[in-house]
């Protein structure tokens, strides 16, 4: 069990390998890596994006919304079971955040990498209101919501870059 007084401690609970809910919340093991679990969780989102990027926009949005709703439950259950508000190994939220970032993104590796960089920047930096949500909202909703907002901010930044490059 993780020390509830130190939620940033990165001890990987054995349940990650035995409980499917924990396994998926930990990004199928990506969050169990000892360094940069959020970055590795975001990297896991790239092949998922590659699988769904050619869907019609409505299908892409439905897919991303379903993953977000599933994430609310997965993250809530896992955080509750581990006795922490937001274990650093829970990375399902990074997967959803990156998929939000890449909504209607221009095709190509450049845009996927730029979207990755924008999302990681907003997820780590946590400008207002992302930081406020990260501090005040707890449970599965808190885990997911700050990354959803980081994904929206990164989406706006990526779309601005795409608009600027198309204009010049």
Short description:
The protein is 68% helix and 0% strand. With 168 residues, it is mainly alpha-helical. It is globular and about 50 Å long.
List the helices and strands and how they pair.
Blueprint: H1 15-18, H2 20-25, H3 37-52, H4 57-82, H5 92-101, H6 109-125, H7 130-136, H8 139-167
Could you please describe the fold and organization of this structure?
This protein has helices at 15-18, 20-25, 37-52, 57-82, 92-101, 109-125, 130-136, 139-167. Helices cover 68% and strands 0% of the residues. With 168 residues, it is mainly α. The chain has 8 helices and no strands. The N and C termini lie far apart (55 Å). The model is unreliable at 1-5 (pLDDT under 50). It is globular and about 50 Å long. Helix 3 packs across helix 5 (92-101) and helix 5 crosses helix 6 (109-125).
Defining key terms:
single chain, 168 residues, mainly alpha, 8 helices, 0% strand, disordered N terminus
Q: Main sheet, how many strands, which sense, barrel? A: none
Overall SS class: mainly alpha
Low-confidence stretches: 1-5
Rg is 16 Å
- The N- to C-terminal Cα distance equals 55 Å
What is the count of helical runs? 8
Q: Mean pLDDT, rounded to whole units?
A: 93
Quote the beta fraction.
under 5%
Please give the number of β-strands: 0
Helix content: 55-70%
Shape: globular
